[in-house]
Design a protein that fits this description.
Layout: H1 3-6, H2 15-43, H3 50-68, H4 71-80, H5 87-104, H6 108-131, H7 134-155, H8 161-169, H9 175-198, H10 213-227, E1 234-238, E2 244-247, E3 250-255, H11 263-279, H12 297-311, H13 315-328, H14 337-344, H15 358-376, H16 385-397, H17 413-416, H18 423-442, H19 446-451, H20 456-465, H21 475-483, H22 490-504
Parallel strand pairs: 1-3
Antiparallel strand pairs: 2-3
Helix pairs in contact: 2-3, 2-4, 3-6, 4-5, 6-7, 7-8, 9-15, 9-22, 10-11, 11-12, 12-18, 15-16, 15-18, 18-22
């Protein structure tokens, strides 16, 4: 296919199609503005600014909603459905129509109210987390749940209200599929996790000394830049909960840190860099269109988990970066590479999802999915969340939750109204292992390259097989095209069996 034919717009494009592109690129620009406001909200905005920030974001989102649902947009979509478009044009129209139909189903006042409530709910979450008291957040969260239930009813669904919310983050996936997938994954994963948790912990040396944030910041910036994160079009800041925001030429990440433990910031930084690499990997000619947007959050998460865990916690990766780390931090000189590798891959029962190892992480996610599913099935009330959480957590991970901060208040997602988001984390784990297996088959000497500090070969394989496609394919088709197989939990199971069997010296 020629470059001209492959572009979103070419000389043969109709005036209606060119107008559609102008409209959606304007909408994309407004989305970027909202993302920067959200970044500021979580990094530098004073707490007292929350009400004004909620009004600001609601105003912009209201404008976006009005433009997306305008009579002109509807006319353009209906006109273009009758025209012969290029392959790229067909994809752009398909995704714009999908977004338009969802927006059209939502009353403008409901959209604004969800945005306003989200800002205030996040502020309440921060206060509740600080005091470890779920009741501080409960009324705001209860309002948000009610609003999201209204959203599900407006959007519509075939089976469960939850599916309408899930579809926003993982298009084409349904909760019935998740129930079956998570059931299979739990059946295969729990015995492996239990065997590793019961095994003697590999000997490792604890972190000693101080690791000032200024030194950590420089090391992290060099490491993330070495992986491929373009710092000229990005930045690294601090927030209570690490996240990535932005797109195209402005993609920002945040971390949190511990001056007694450098790993506390390093691995979230690698994780968020994986997200950023995806956003920075779209083709410039498609910026502002669906062909420069992620296909799903499961695919997005596959990139962050692949870089954080599959690569970032591997022996080849640290064969190159550990000597650099030892030169940067004096406290690391007493710990050998092997001890460090064992330490960063230790499997333990943990309260906090973002600190969990690969084996137990999916149990944290499946707990959250069960809560969300129960809420929108009308089986769980807002005030019952802490008790439900604590009971299931102890059942799954074998430890008693000490307080709300270490329990149901640890994540900000529900305060934002991001119901349907959590399952994508587990999907990302499964996708990442499958993509890694394919990359190893396709890229000669991949692990040796990584051990020499060359991660570019892996990044360009991902660019070619994942990033550059944008929304061209649905998630399952993208994985199939990249790996030659339909998505399956078996790749992840094989990966963790091999990795942790070797680290713990046991047969899995």
């Amino acid at each position: 296919m020629s470059e001209k034919r492959d572009s979103c717009v070419n000389m043969a494009a109709s005036k209606e199609y060119r107008e559609l592109l102008e409209m959606i690129k304007d909408l994309s620009t407004l989305e970027q503005v909202v993302s920067i406001l959200g970044w500021d909200e979580q990094t530098y905005m004073p707490a007292g600014g929350a009400p004004d920030r909620g009004t600001q974001k609601a105003a912009i989102i209201g404008i976006m909603h009005e433009r997306l649902t305008s009579k002109r947009m509807e006319k353009l979509i209906r006109t273009l459905k009758k025209q012969e478009l290029s392959p790229d044009g067909q994809i752009v129209l398909r995704e714009v129509e999908r977004k338009w139909r969802r927006a059209l189903s939502m009353p403008l006042e409901l959209v604004k109210e969800i945005t306003r409530t989200g800002t205030m709910s996040v502020e309440a979450w921060a206060r509740a987390r600080k005091s470890s008291d779920f009741r501080v957040m409960e009324p705001w969260l209860n309002n948000m749940i009610g609003l999201k239930m209204k959203e599900a009813e407006h959007v519509g669904y075939d089976d469960r209200p939850y599916d309408a919310l899930l579809d926003e983050y993982e298009p084409c996936m349904r909760s019935k599929e998740l129930d079956a997938l998570f059931s299979r994954l739990r059946y295969k994963l729990v015995p492996i996790a239990e065997k590793v948790l019961d095994a003697p912990e590999p000997k490792s040396t604890p972190f000693t000394g101080d690791y000032p944030w200024d030194m950590q910041r420089k090391f992290i910036a060099d490491l993330c830049g070495g992986i491929g994160y373009d710092m000229n079009c990005g930045r690294i800041d601090l927030s209570a909960h690490p996240f990535t925001t932005g797109s195209a030429r402005d993609v920002r990440i945040t971390v949190r840190y511990d001056e007694k433990n450098p790993a506390y910031a390093i691995f979230p930084a690698i994780h968020e860099t994986g997200h950023a690499l995806y956003e920075q990997g779209f083709r410039e000619k498609y910026f502002g269109t669906p062909l420069a947007e992620s296909v799903s959050l499961g695919i997005h998460e596959s990139q962050s988990r692949l870089w954080e865990n599959v690569v970032g916690r591997s022996m080849p990766f640290w064969t190159f970066y550990y000597p650099v780390m030892q030169r940067t931090f004096r406290g690391m000189k007493k710990m050998s590479l092997e001890q460090f590798h064992r330490r960063i891959n230790t499997v333990r029962r943990s309260y906090i999802r973002v600190d969990a190892d690969e084996l137990t992480y999916n149990l944290h996610v499946m707990l959250r999915y069960e809560i969300e599913s129960a809420i929108f099935a009308g089986k769980l009330k807002t005030g019952e969340i802490p008790e439900f959480w604590n009971d299931r957590f102890e059942r799954y991970l074998g430890i008693e939750v000490p307080d709300d901060t270490h329990g149901c208040l640890q994540d900000v997602h529900w305060a934002w109204g991001s119901f349907g988001y959590f399952p994508t984390y587990a999907l990302g784990n499964l996708y990442s292992a499958q993509l890694w297996g394919a990359a190893k088959r396709k890229v000669a000497g991949l692990e040796d390259r990584i051990a020499s500090g060359d991660t570019a070969a892996l990044l360009w394989w991902l660019r070619d097989n994942v990033h550059r496609h944008g929304k061209r394919y649905c998630a399952s088709d993208l994985i199939t095209k990249a790996t030659g197989e339909r998505p399956s939990e078996d790749h992840f199971i094989r990966y963790v069996k091999e990795k942790y069997g070797n680290i713990y010296g046991i047969s899995l």
